[in-house]
User: Which sequence fits this backbone?
């Protein structure tokens, strides 16, 4: 069995939303697509969004935050095997900035582990958008993302880190409307 | 220097080509459908000896020769065979052209001595064609028309200046004239070319057209006629035959690498890049296996192309072994020389390699990218196109009107109350409206008939719900109903 290299201690401890580099993580919940777009705006380089061919929910180029639409490659796959193969292949490729995958079925431990090794080999971060409760044990972190209601002219999100292999868990209420790559934390008092 | 022309005629080209790969004993014919009946198109010597001829209905031929073996004619393959022969004859002369659909004409002025004279040249040509299994007749003469006529009437060599004497005995049909004219001539008792030569030109031209006089002059060499060799289309194919059959993936890949090296050299000298490459592996049992790969960008880098072939080559059933390889760049595009080694170029190359790998497995239609488009209709406000056939274009970012980040085909909303709905159900979940912005009216594009827009104009609303999701709802006033089409960030 191949052992993943130890990650150097993250310097970005101050920013809870910077993803572990060269790892595969998971996001679930109704706001997982928003979380994926938020992460996409923070990763430079080509973006790959891999989804089954029959998936009706697609990114709409006109409504994406600035700078994402032209970097985004949409990859349609006919079967689950093709989907996993495409995720692995894009993770393994060096130029990829961020790989977003939408597996339809829960990943087996073997498949999840394989994706981790591919991410490590290609130094690429992968983000799997999963259904509720279909997480894989091999995932580095797991986020639960939901849109939240807020005051007028706000786009509130509730992002909680439910699983973290190397660090603490947390729950954040943030405000991100796609205009910048940074998000505003909503103060506790404001809620 | 006197002009010398070599004409080659393949009397049974179609059947020879067909029999070369799959030989048949005994009478054989190729058939094609003419109107409602099958006709013989080309036959071998054994069939001709039994009294069959071209254009004969197949039913009659079967009645005469019950054991006649037939196959369907393949005109595309015949043309390809003639083009291939034309390329081969370039070994004898620089200017070679096809002459009709079963002949070739080559200008051998001043090259015969390289083969030891015209006799030896013709002998060498005939011997090689016989060895290849092709029936051929060749003739060398001082004019194109003369060589053409002689090749179709026995072949031979006409020394310089003796055209009229040596070709006079040929029938008038040997001239390149229509059957009606040759029939008219023989009806007047002019059956041989020699009969035509002393006749006065003006009445002949008035009666049978100027074409007859022209072809006669061209045959006798008094009127020049160029060969008109077609420009050589660049061929990006290389082949390799092996003394012993191979079957291991590693061996095939090693052979492929050598071929790719040569192919990419050819491409580089023509400033072209391959877009689609086909590898043909010929097995010992004469079956051919092809592996084809597409490339996301035109390229001529042997190592990168070779990497794409690995998966296809691994899946090939090599049978009793592979004894010949051929690789061809099927689709090519102009590709100017490029500075190598630059980091940006390298990254782009790697991205293109990735798209090639994905495209070859998933299909190039399934690796997509977004391009801007001018339309108010949400689904058509951007284009989704194959990444391999488009350049990345920056999408103009507009803050207003607000558009959702994710879109899906409209899904109906149930139990909507109010306008905009204060409460509604969607995907079996209840939502309460917190805030609503709108309406934004979008009218269908009348010049495009889109079934999804048959319900007429739509009033779009951005609905913020108490439950969290910010949805893009629309109302169709002409067929009152509410539907959800997207979600905002």
Assistant:
């Amino acid at each position: 069995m191949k052992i993943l290299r130890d990650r150097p201690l993250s310097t970005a401890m101050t920013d809870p939303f910077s993803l572990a580099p060269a790892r595969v993580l998971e996001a679930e919940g109704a706001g997982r697509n928003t979380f994926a777009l938020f992460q996409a705006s923070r990763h430079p380089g080509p973006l790959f969004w891999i989804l089954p061919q029959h998936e009706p929910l697609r990114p709409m180029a006109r409504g994406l935050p600035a700078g994402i639409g032209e970097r985004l490659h949409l990859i349609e796959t006919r079967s689950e095997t093709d989907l996993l193969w495409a995720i692995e292949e894009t993770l393994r490729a060096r130029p990829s900035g961020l790989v977003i995958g939408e597996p339809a079925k829960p990943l087996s431990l073997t498949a999840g582990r394989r994706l981790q090794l591919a991410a490590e080999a290609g130094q690429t971060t992968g983000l799997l958008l999963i259904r509720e409760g279909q997480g894989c044990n091999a995932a580095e972190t797991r986020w639960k993302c939901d849109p939240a209601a807020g005051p007028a002219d706000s786009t509130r999100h509730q992002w909680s880190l439910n699983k973290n292999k190397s660090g603490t868990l947390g729950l954040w209420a943030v405000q991100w409307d796609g205009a910048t790559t940074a998000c505003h934390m909503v103060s506790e008092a404001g809620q | 220097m006197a002009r010398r022309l070599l004409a080659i005629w393949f009397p049974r080209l179609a059947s020879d080509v067909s029999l070369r790969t799959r030989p048949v004993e005994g009478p054989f014919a190729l058939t094609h459908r003419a109107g409602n009946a099958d006709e013989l198109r080309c036959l071998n010597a054994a069939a001709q000896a039994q009294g069959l001829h071209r254009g004969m209905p197949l039913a009659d031929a079967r009645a005469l020769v019950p054991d006649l073996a037939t196959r369907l004619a393949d005109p595309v393959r015949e043309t390809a065979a003639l083009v291939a022969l034309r390329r081969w004859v370039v070994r004898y002369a620089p200017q070679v052209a096809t002459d009709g659909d079963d002949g070739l004409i080559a200008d051998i002025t001043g090259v015969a001595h390289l083969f030891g004279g015209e006799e030896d040249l013709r002998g060498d040509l005939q011997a090689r064609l016989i060895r290849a299994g092709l029936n051929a007749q060749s003739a060398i003469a001082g004019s194109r028309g003369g060589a053409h006529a002689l090749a179709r009437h026995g072949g031979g060599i006409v020394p310089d200046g003796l055209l009229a004497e040596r070709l006079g005995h040929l029938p008038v049909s040997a001239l390149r004239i229509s059957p009606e004219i040759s029939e008219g001539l023989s009806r007047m008792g002019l059956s041989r070319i020699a009969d035509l030569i002393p006749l006065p030109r003006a009445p002949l031209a008035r009666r049978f057209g100027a074409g007859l006089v022209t072809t006669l002059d061209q045959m006798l060499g008094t009127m020049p006629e160029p060969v008109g060799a077609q420009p050589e289309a660049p061929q990006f194919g290389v082949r390799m035959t092996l003394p012993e059959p191979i079957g291991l993936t590693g061996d095939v890949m090693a052979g492929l690498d050598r071929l790719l090296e040569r192919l990419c050299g050819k491409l580089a000298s023509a400033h072209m890049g391959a877009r689609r490459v086909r590898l043909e592996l010929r097995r010992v049992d004469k079956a051919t296996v092809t592996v084809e790969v597409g490339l996301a960008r035109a390229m001529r880098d042997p190592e990168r192309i070779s990497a794409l072939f690995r998966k296809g080559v691994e899946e090939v059933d090599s049978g009793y072994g592979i004894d010949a390889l051929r690789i061809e760049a099927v689709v090519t595009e102009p590709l100017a020389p490029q500075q190598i080694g630059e980091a940006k170029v390298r990254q782009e190359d790697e991205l293109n390699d990735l798209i090639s790998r994905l495209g070859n497995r998933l299909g190039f239609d399934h690796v997509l990218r977004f391009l801007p488009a001018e339309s108010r209709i949400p689904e058509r406000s951007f284009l989704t196109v194959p990444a391999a056939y488009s350049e990345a274009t920056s999408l103009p970012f507009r803050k207003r009107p607000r558009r959702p980040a994710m879109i899906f085909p409209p899904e109906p909303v149930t139990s909507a109350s109010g306008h905009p709905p204060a409460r509604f159900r969607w995907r079996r979940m209840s939502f309460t409206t917190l805030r609503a912005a709108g309406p934004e009216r979008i009218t269908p594009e009348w010049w495009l008939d889109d079934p999804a827009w048959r319900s007429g104009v739509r009033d779009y609303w951005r609905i913020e719900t108490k439950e969290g999701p910010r949805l893009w709802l629309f109302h169709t006033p002409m067929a009152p109903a509410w539907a959800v089409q997207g979600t905002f960030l």
